[in-house]
Amino acid sequence: MQQFLTSVLIESGPESVPYVESSKLLIRQHLLDLISCYPSLNPKTATFIHNDGCPSINLLQADGTIPMDYHGVTYNIPVIIWLLDSYPFHPPCVYLNPTPGMIIKRPHAHVTPSGLVSFPYLHNWAYPSSNLVDLVSELTASFARDPPLYSRRRPQPKQSSPLRDQSLSRPFQHVHHHQQSDDVAVVYKKEAIDKVIRELAELSLQRVLRRREELRKRSTEG
């Protein structure tokens, strides 16, 4: 994932992501921290279509599920977190992404009928302290107080309850199986290799961004 994010952020051309060069290292770190805490979210690129008629653009997003605890049961809430071109100076755009077996609760204090999420952490977004991990943490706590999704009624519905649908996946289990089967030396070796990969990817991105800045200054001076 480190290599994927690095390649996306250094890419140039019509399909490149439009983020400010000086913010790309922070964007990369925000996404790496996010998937470390919430592995059920998957960073990818996709085309974002504006509702106001502006041209569509290629953006980064985190697509997947976030956990929601409700009455002692953990449910997986499908979401898409779009990193708009103004990120991280401005908040991301968060949408619920319900499956065919789900419906959005109407009315809901923080979710529109179209699935757009609006709640205090987004409203109070403050660069550079605000980040994706804290965003999802606040979001799961908010949804636990007021679940945004319900299962669709069936021909013989039982008593309604949030997300009571057999088609829903079970909560994501944060279990590191390799630590149970591998000895300590092997685990340390894997962690060391992962650290080296992260550092090399970050160094590569830093060099590319620094080179671009040098070329920009030369063209300005010329």
TrEMBL record:
Composition-biased stretches (Polar residues): 157-170
Signal peptide: none
Top-rank lineage group of the source organism: Eukaryota
GO biological process, one term: protein transport
Disordered: annotated span: 147-178
InterPro entries: ESCRT-I_UEV_domain (IPR052070), UBQ-conjugating_enzyme/RWD (IPR016135), UEV_N (IPR008883)
Residue stretches making up the UEV domain: 8-153
Pfam families cross-referenced by the UniProt entry: UEV
PANTHER family: PROTEIN ELC, TUMOR SUSCEPTIBILITY GENE 101 PROTEIN-RELATED
Protein name (record): (rape) hypothetical protein
Protein's organism: Brassica napus (Rape)
